[in-house]
């Protein structure tokens, strides 16, 4: 169970994060203090618009390690609920996500702390495939808590990229080959060319 939770947090941390819902330090309504070493590796285009300040993540992931073939072979279906605070009156939320992460657009919901549903008008997958825009039917209210929910499917890759959750195999004491999911999330390997040892 602990291994599944570690894998769950690891795959989603890279797949959706990079880091998620980052707020630029020049925001008037919320200041995101970055460590000194980060100035060398985080460029302005990596930061997201200041719409929400993340407070809590609830991530559920169920890796399929023994596939029978078909469309779900070597995949990790999951969901996330992000509790966040509105910090700008804006009608668009932008999150980071890995380009291989398939978000179920019809599953995206947003509600406020009073359980009022906020209409999701559309999604935007622009030229920067690491950013995913969610256009709302109304503006966020500053100081109000929101819950953003969505479902996704992540690939369990073969390990050739050295990133995310990948499949690995081992031989047990009976000589049977078993599959396992293994995360690779070192900070310097998650964004090649941006991170260095400090």
Automatic annotation (TrEMBL):
Record bears the keyword Signal: yes
Cellular component per GO, a single term: cytoplasm
Swiss-Prot/TrEMBL GO biological process terms: peptide catabolic process; proteolysis
Alphabetized InterPro entries for the sequence: Aminopeptidase_N-like_N, Peptidase_M1_aminopeptidases
Domain Aminopeptidase N-like N-terminal residue range list: 53-177
Keywords: Signal
Molecular functions (GO terms): metalloaminopeptidase activity; peptide binding; zinc ion binding
Signal peptide positions (record): 1-17
Keyword presence, Signal: yes
A Pfam entry, by short name: Peptidase_M1_N
Record's protein name: Aminopeptidase N-like N-terminal domain-containing protein
């Amino acid at each position: 169970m602990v291994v599944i939770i570690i894998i769950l947090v690891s795959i989603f941390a890279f797949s959706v994060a990079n880091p998620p819902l980052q707020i630029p330090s020049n925001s008037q309504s919320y200041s995101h203090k970055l460590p000194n070493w980060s100035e060398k590796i985080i460029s302005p285009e990596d930061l997201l618009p200041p719409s929400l300040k993340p407070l809590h993540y609830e991530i559920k992931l169920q890796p399929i390690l023994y596939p029978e073939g078909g469309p779900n072979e070597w995949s990790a279906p999951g969901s996330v609920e992000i509790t966040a605070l509105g910090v700008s009156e804006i009608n668009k939320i932008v999150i980071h996500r890995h380009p291989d992460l398939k978000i179920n657009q019809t599953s995206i919901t947003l509600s406020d702390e009073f359980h009022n549903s906020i209409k999701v008008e559309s999604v935007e997958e622009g030229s920067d495939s690491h950013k995913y825009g969610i256009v709302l039917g109304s503006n966020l209210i500053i100081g109000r808590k929101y819950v953003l929910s969505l479902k996704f499917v992540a690939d369990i890759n073969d390990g050739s990229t050295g990133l995310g959750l990948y499949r690995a195999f081992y031989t047990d004491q009976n000589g049977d080959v078993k599959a396992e999911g293994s995360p690779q999330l070192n900070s310097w390997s998650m964004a090649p060319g941006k991170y260095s040892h400090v």
